[in-house]
């Protein structure tokens, strides 16, 4: 399957070492070789401290690798970042309280010098996509947590990035809201053809959303398996009750023990 597909992101022998409080080296990530395809929905999954965020940060040019390198569309992460090809969604929506939802979505476009009309049209288009059109003139504190995260997603899509980096975006939300957002995210991903790199420690979430799940194991953080999620799309929520879904969940869970790619 992989041969004919375009590789968008490639890490080679990627490693990151931090210093602990006593000045000793701590390997957060070691020897990560990963190829991510264009238009793929890929999840980094693993227990706390296995290096998921560190790997995401290396790709996003927010963390310099100690070893190895990252190539994205044949460029360095820095070049890609400067070309605004990344969109970010973090666990906590970073919305400014004093700006309306629409003005929050417009912000990156404002910084990039889009004209007033252009950014207004684009913001409304993005808000419609995430189901928040009627809340454009509300302020963030008038929205639920799920709606705030929708606004965050709308903002991340504003500059039409090629790659969306999502670090535990739904982990603070209740199960019902999360389920709805999963559905919407997959719909938006399909409609926009972005590459999504999604971080979570929730196995079901990773299996439900992804084309492939990358399992990271801790101490030191390493890629211990890549599991293909061969469940056809669209995936109704009931798929979570199927035998195959649960087999994949078990397969991912068992991958934490060891094995190498
Ligand atoms: N700036 C830093 N300085 C020192 N150690 C760090 C730093 N950032 C991360 N680490 C360590 O690197 C390891 C990997 O951290 P990372 O945040 O990437 O893990 P994670 O899998 O994303 O965890 P979580 O699910 O808890 O967010 C951890 O042991 C962490 O303590």
What does the model show?
By secondary structure, this protein is an alpha/beta fold. The chain has a domain at 1-85 and 201-260: Rossmann fold (3-Layer(aba) Sandwich), CATH 3.40.50. It has 8 helices and 9 strands. The protein has helices spanning 52-59, 77-82, 101-111, 116-129, 145-157, 175-192, 203-209, 243-255, and strands at residues 7-19, 25-37, 41-45, 67-72, 86-89, 163-167, 195-200, 212-217, 222-228. A 6-stranded mixed sheet has the order 5-6-7-3-8-9, with helices on both faces. The protein has a 3-stranded antiparallel sheet with strand order 2-1-4, covered by helices on one side. A hairpin with a 5-residue loop joins strand 1 (7-19) and strand 2 (25-37). Helix 3 (101-111) packs across helix 4.
Tell me briefly what this model is.
The chain has helices at residues 52-59, 77-82, 101-111, 116-129, 145-157, 175-192, 203-209, 243-255; strands at 7-19, 25-37, 41-45, 67-72, 86-89, 163-167, 195-200, 212-217, 222-228. It is an alpha/beta fold. It has a six-stranded mixed β-sheet with strand order 5-6-7-3-8-9, with helices on both faces. A three-stranded antiparallel β-sheet has the order 2-1-4, covered by helices on one side.
Give the distance, in angstroms, between the N- and C-terminal Cα atoms: 17 Å
- Classify the beta-strand content into a percent band: 15-25%
Secondary-structure element order, N to C:
EEEHEHEHHHEHEHEEH
CATH architecture of one domain: 3-Layer(aba) Sandwich
Average residue pLDDT: 93
Overall SS class? alpha/beta
Shape field: globular
Q: What compounds sit in this structure?
A: adenosine-5'-triphosphate
**Structural Rg:** 19 Å
Biggest sheet statistics: 6 strands, mixed
The number of helices is 8
Q: Report the CATH topology name of one domain.
A: Rossmann fold
| Low-confidence region ranges | none
CATH class of one domain: Alpha Beta
Report the oligomer.
single chain
Helicity range of the residues?
Answer: 25-40%
InterPro entries: AAA+_ATPase (IPR003593), ABC_transporter-like_ATP-bd (IPR003439), ABC_transporter-like_CS (IPR017871), ABC_transporter_ATP-bind (IPR050166), P-loop_NTPase (IPR027417)
GO molecular function, one term: ATP hydrolysis activity
Organism: Acetitomaculum ruminis DSM 5522
Protein name: NitT/TauT family transport system ATP-binding protein
């Amino acid at each position: 399957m992989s041969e004919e597909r375009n590789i968008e992101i490639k890490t080679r022998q990627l490693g990151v070492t931090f210093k602990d409080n006593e000045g000793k080296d701590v390997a957060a990530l070691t020897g990560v070789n990963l190829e991510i395809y264009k238009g793929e929905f890929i999840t980094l999954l693993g227990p706390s401290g296995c290096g998921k965020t560190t790997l995401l940060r290396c790709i996003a040019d927010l963390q310099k690798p100690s070893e190895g390198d990252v190539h994205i569309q044949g460029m360095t992460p820095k070049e890609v970042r400067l070309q605004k090809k990344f969109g970010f969604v973090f666990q906590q929506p970073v919305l400014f309280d004093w700006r309306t939802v629409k003005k929050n979505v417009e912000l990156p476009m404002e910084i990039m010098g889009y004209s007033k009309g252009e950014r207004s049209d684009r913001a409304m288009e993005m808000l419609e996509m995430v189901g928040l059109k009627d809340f454009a003139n509300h302020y963030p504190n008038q929205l639920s947590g799920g709606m705030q995260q929708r606004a965050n997603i709308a903002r991340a899509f504003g500059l039409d990035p090629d790659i969306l980096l999502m670090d535990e975006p739904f982990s603070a939300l209740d199960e019902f809201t999360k389920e709805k957002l999963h559905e919407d995210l997959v719909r938006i991903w399909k409609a926009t053809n972005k590459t999504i790199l999604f971080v979570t420690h929730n196995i079901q979430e990773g299996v439900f959303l992804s084309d492939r799940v990358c399992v990271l194991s801790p101490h030191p953080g390493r890629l211990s398996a890549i599991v293909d999620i061969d469940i056809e799309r669209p995936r109704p929520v009931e798929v979570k009750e199927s035998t195959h879904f649960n087999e994949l969940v078990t397969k991912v869970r068992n991958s934490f023990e060891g094995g190498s790619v």
